[in-house]
Give the backbone structure.
Amino acid sequence: MTPADVVFLFLGAVTLGSAVLVVTTRQLVHAALWLVVTFGALAASYLLLTAEFVAWVQVLIYVGAVVVLLLFGIMLTRAPIGRSEGLDSANRPVAIAVAAATAALLVTVVVAGFREAYVELGDPPAGTSGQMGASIFRTWVLPFEVLSLLLLAALIGAIVLSRREIQPPGESSDERPTERPTGPGRG
Amino acid sequence: MHIVYPAVVAALLFSVGVYGVLARRNAILVLMSVELMLNAVNLNLVAFDVWLGDALRGGQVLTLFVIVIAAAEVGLGLAIVLLVFRNRQTVQIDALRDLADRDAEPAERPEQVSTEIS
Amino acid sequence: MTTSLLAAPPATPLAAGEAPTLEAFGLDPWWLILAKAVLIFVFLMLMVLFEIWFERRFMARMQNRLGPNRVGPLGLLQPIADGLKLPLKEDLVPRGVDRPVFILAPALATMPAFLAFAIIPFGPTVSVFGHQTPLQLADLPVAVLFVLAMSSLGVYGIVLGGWASASPYSLLGGLRSSAQVISYEIGMGLSFVAVFLFAGSLSTSEIVASQERIWYAVVLFPSFVIYAITMVGEVNRIPFDLPEGEGELVGGFHTEYSSLKFGMFMLAEYVNMTTVSALAVTLFLGGWRAPWPISLVDGANAGWWPVLWFMIKLLLTISFFIWLRATLPRVRYDQLMKLGWKVLIPGALAWIMVVATIRVLRNEGISTQQVFFAVAIVLGIYIVASYLWDAVRGNRRDAEEQEATAAERAGAGDSTGGDPMAGGYPVPPLDAPHYHGRNSTSKEVNRA
């Protein structure tokens, strides 16, 4: 065991522990916070694997934007402070079984296949910004462009979805739910 | 570093995500679980890319692409969730079964209409 | 930890006064790194004290007042008196808040602001007790990305503080800030791209080194303007201080905070201001390099002198913030979003295209000036046209909306029912304490 192995195992434990908390906690906002811990630990793992650029992009996009968006959604859908009831559905035992089976299968395969795989880290670093830039804009430029198109489509889609005045013909735009005071989470 | 460590962590993280997607009812928590699964894939990609030492950096580039797709996915997903919340006042995914392909049992109709679960 | 992860093959020690490159980092002995970290911390704390005093005095002069002048000479000790007073106040934690998050939030707001300063270069390589070392705690090949990541972490303190307070004002402030910081961070990131294109590096020391001939604020003026606007939005200062706008939201996200926790939010705001100002100096204003006439003097860019130039530039940038605060009113929220998404981001994208085109053409040996003018004209037409289009369309839309709201008011009286998407804009529910599930407890208390 090299020091890198020890550090990675620690980070992996943090990742998995907080991930488990994400899917088990009874408080919505705390789930988002544990998700931040998971992503942070993963970013540290990438740093350890010398994938520096990916690590900071992970922090920037996942921690900085995706989870903030999720928090935004949580707050707009009226998450209560404290425990919320009914975050887990009735098929929890089945979910546990499926997840355990997935874990068993994947871990068995991975351990069987890569028990001996070993990489010397650090020299040279695997993912500096220069290398990444060169390879994205030379080799992978077509997927990159396609991806930009996808992002644009997603952006437009999100705008269209959240505008009220765009509706199928025949429906009036003033149609809004009237029985609001009886929404969930009251009383 | 032994590559099997990140691989095992990624496999377990993926299973945690699978559990979350199957067991959670809140749509936003399901989105979070999907993110966990995507991140498990990312960890795999980075680890094996470092292991292979590929000159094209395929694994890491693909990781960046997955991150971008995840951002797009969350943006759209949240727009949908907020729209659903606006119309139904709930984000409990098992309460949203209007599109389900089931035998129309008259006894079940009232339960469907009332979106109040909590 | 970051320094140990740097690609740092043993390089030859640099002579004093040379601009450091990436290889110069990661060679310091541990005590020097520690001393640098402590010094940066102390520097930031002193800057906060100074900024509070400076802001009050400077603004007072602009408004024909004197400002604080009782404690110490020229009122210089006023911020210290304030700083001592704050922790001695009663630390209120309202009932019904999410305690761990409520306590965590101020710390989360403060820490990233301090961390981001680690990569700001204060000066060139100097000699400290016989060690040649750059005046910069750490440098990364992706240093600017690190700053962006840290500034995006800073939003957590505000969002979580706003949410955990269980108050509608705080919640509104937190929501506003999350949307604002994400939007303005895109513009900020895009404004950096042109700098990266010119400098060919993301490391701050190399960006400073590449501005030896001319500042990027001159060459990349549009980028600088975009950054100057987005940096104000990023640190929630007037005119973009909507998350805490006291005219509308009492105190916004920190309404429920008191004592030391409130002090930490204040600290975070001022440290953030210092950080983005220092970043503006580093990326656009030549960093620690002497301004033009002085730079002709031999030795102006050597030894400890650059720290002076850096400080002067930093203070000027900070005065710009204060000047803005004394001059401009707060913008409306939809104006803020419109500016961010419809002007800054498209403008930044167009400018990046222009810069990239010019770089390519220069690489191919075509005279750049003609191309530059042609592109500048096209860009100008585009910006003017987009403004006009938006203005015309916006007016029409406003009129329609007014009609619609008038009709609505005539029809139904209670349009303030708390629709989360009232008028097409996402509005958080205004009955927050109720849905926060505190209804039952308050009833119980009433009963008891």
Q: What stands out?
A: Chain C has a mean pLDDT of 78. Residues 20-331 of chain C form one domain.
